[in-house]
Amino acid sequence: MAWLHLFPLSSVVAGFDIGNHWNEYAGFDCEWDKYPSADQQEMFVRHYLGEFTGKDASDVPSGDVQAVILEGNVYSLASHLLWITWALIQARWSPIDFDYLDYAVERLNECRKRMSVIQRQLNSVQTDTKENTKE
Asked: At what angle do helices 100-134 and 62-93 cross, to 10 degrees?
């Protein structure tokens, strides 16, 4: 698997690139059930980190994998906000016959839904961190 960094000449954070990549599984039809599962995310990140570090995917530490998965999911929210903003601008100025406002609302609704899922993930990480520092 070869990773193509989508914005190679910019200062985009890898987590944003990954989160945006996962969001784009849904396409313009906003089929959010196509967002990658936890297993798919793990496989993707293992290979991504393996390519980045020169290691075999199976040798990438699980802690590193989980950290990048969380980062990608957090940045997926920023990706939604970017595309919501883009859609609102397009709704005003684009001559293309597409319901940009509906697209913005679809993205906003998914962003809100994912926000609660990601908040639980962050809370879990914080709880684990607190427990590990007590030991």
From this structure: 160
The CA-based diameter of the chain, rounded to the nearest angstrom, is 61
DSSP H or E run through 65: helix 62-93
Using alpha carbons, select from 93, 71, 61, 16 the residue that is nearest to residue 101.
93
- Tens of pLDDT, residue by residue over 51-87, are 988 999 999 999 999 999 999 999 999 999 999 999 9
The Cα 96–Cα 110 span in angstroms is 24
Return the CATH number of 14-134, one of 3.90.1200.10, 3.30.310.250, 3.30.428.70, 3.40.50.300: 3.90.1200.10
